[in-house]
Amino acid sequence: MNKKNSIVGILSLTFAMFIWASSFIALKTAMVDLEPYTVIFLRMFTASLCFVYFIKDFIKYDFSRSDIKYIILLAFFEPCLYFIFEAKAIQLTTASQVGMITSLMPIITAMAAGYFLKEIISKQLVIGSLIALSGAVWLSLQAVSSVNAPNPLLGNFYELLAMVCGAGYTIVARYLSDKYSALFITAIQVFIGAIFFFPFSLYEYSTNDLNLTTNAILCVLYLGVIVTLGGYGLYNYALTKIEASKAAVFIYLIPVFTLILAYFILNEKLSIIEFIACGTILFGVFISETPLKKIVKFIRRK
Fold first, then answer.
1. Interatomic CA distance for residues 211 and 155, integer angstroms
2. Which pLDDT does position 281 carry in this prediction?
3. CA–CA separation, 185 vs 255, rounded Å?
4. Distance between CA atoms of 164 and 82, rounded to whole angstroms?
5. Could you tell me which of 224, 244, 286, 276 has the C-alpha nearest to residue 108?
6. What is the DSSP string of 138-197?
7. What is the phi-psi region of residue 147: left when phi exceeds 0, alpha when psi lies from -120 to 50, beta otherwise?
8. Which residues of 107-121 are buried (b: 16+ CB within 10 A; e: fewer)?
9. For a 10 Å CB count at each end of the chain, is N or C smaller?
10. Distant-in-sequence, close-in-space partners of 89: CB < 8 Å, separation ≥ 6
11. CB burial string 172-192: b at 16+ within 10 A, e below
């Protein structure tokens, strides 16, 4: 992997993590007025409309039977199972706590990447991941439940299950990225996701009142266009530039971005300890992604 690809991959992943962090707040806001799976369906449907123009390019791909199997597996992991678990998590816990649990995904992904993709897991990556994980655990211990989080423990467990699905998605996406573009991988997700969540949405519509407020509509549009297209597009593109195990480490940035956004948008306060924990996470990501020679050289200069 050359230096240019590495930098492009790192920048793409950083922006993707910021966008994904904002999705927790948008989801929480939208679910005030709409049922969870209705929000997800509308999100997937909105994103699908953005990809209709590219269908003529997608059908030019030469799909093998094996490829179709992996594409279905990709969508099964995410968005299908992933969003089922995350929707439940958002209902039961706070947006900040959901952001914290995402920090567990890199370890799961790194283990899976080492086993299935035979990627080399360096000591530097392990050390950086442990530092970042300790910061994420520190942050999670500072999280406070609220009236909007009736069962944080169960909600966090659902988010953990979502992270397992996210790790599976990352491994499969890495495999498919050798043959298919990031645009196609993102598009096939939202097409299958819209079909999968449509009956869930119909059920919610038949049993609950549909309350399409301005806030709900804006949040759905943001989730469908910016988060789904921007976030997944950048992430899938980054997987063509950087290994899956290294890409997963950037998930540690989501708790940091979530807390910052929650502070400005939801008026949640950040303590000094939380700021220190955020710095610990950033330091862990730095250690994981920066070549050891450069770190030693930087220290010697000082």
1. 24
2. 81
3. 26
4. 8
5. 244
6. HHHHH----TT-S-HHHHHHHHHHHHHHHHHHHHHHHHHTTTS-HHHHHHHHHHHHHHHH
7. alpha
8. bbbbebbeeeeebee
9. C
10. 98, 101, 155, 156, 158, 159, 162
11. bbbbbbeebbbbbbbbbbbbb
| Residue 267 identity (one-letter amino acid) | N
What would the two tokens of residue 54 be? 């590219």
- Angle of helix 152-176 relative to helix 105-112, nearest 10 degrees, comes to 40
Question: Which pLDDT value is given to residue 71?
Answer: 95
Give the max Cα distance, the chain.
67
Q: What is the pLDDT of residue 298?
A: 47
Cα–Cα distances in angstroms (integers) from residue 296 to residues 3, 122, 272, in the given order: 18, 17, 29
From 74, 98, 90, select the one nearest 35 (Cα to Cα). 90
Which three-class secondary structure state does DSSP give residue 213? coil
CB 221 within 8 A of CB 263: no
Report pLDDT for 1: 53
Amino acid identity of 28?
K
Place of tokens 């920090």: 103
pLDDT score of 35? 93
Task: Give me the average pLDDT of each 10-residue run along the chain (302 residues).
Answer: 74 92 90 92 93 88 90 95 93 81 78 76 80 79 70 84 91 87 89 96 90 91 90 84 77 84 77 80 77 57 56
Cα of first residue to Cα of last residue in the chain, in angstroms, is: 29
Please count the CA atoms within 13 angstroms of the CA of 286 that sit on its side-chain side: 9
Amino acid at 87: A
Of 266, 189, 177, 172, the closest CA to residue 224 belongs to 189
- Tokens representing residue 183 in the block: 């645009």
3-class DSSP string for 224-253: HHHHHHHHHHHHHHHCCCCCHHHHHHHHHH
**43's tokens:** 């999100």
